[in-house]
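User: Could you check the structure of this?
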Amino acid sequence: MALTKLDNLYRAVILDHSAHPRHAGELEVGCVIDLNNPTCGDVIRLTVAFDGEKISDIAFSGHGCTISTASASMMSELVLGKTKAQALELAHVFSEMVTGKSDPAQENLGDAQFLAGVSKFPARVKCSTLPWNALKKALDQEKLTSEVANAH
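Assistant: Sure, the predicted structure tokens are below.
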């Protein structure tokens, strides 16, 4: 496939996730994380519900640029049903990818692989990682909540 056709495919997938975000909205229960990117104004509210070690439901709301919204949509699709450890590993692989580091595990990122080109635009890296950072915070918060519950 010619490079321009591949670039067009990448753009189409990113634009589709931005225009028709998967898992957009809010959950009535779950861990709620609010984050913003002060450099561009992106804001996300991520709600993650857990069933034991698995992510049983996920939703996001807020407002952001095309990259931020597409990344949140892709991330939400990817981590739903995954264990906390799997989701954390995917967040790590994604962060490595958008900062220009190569990792064979990138193939596990599904549509999120299409955001690899963000590494060429340092100002956009924060846009793409905002939802993933919210996910990491939700996983950290859930871990603390579980530890406190197990201590009692």
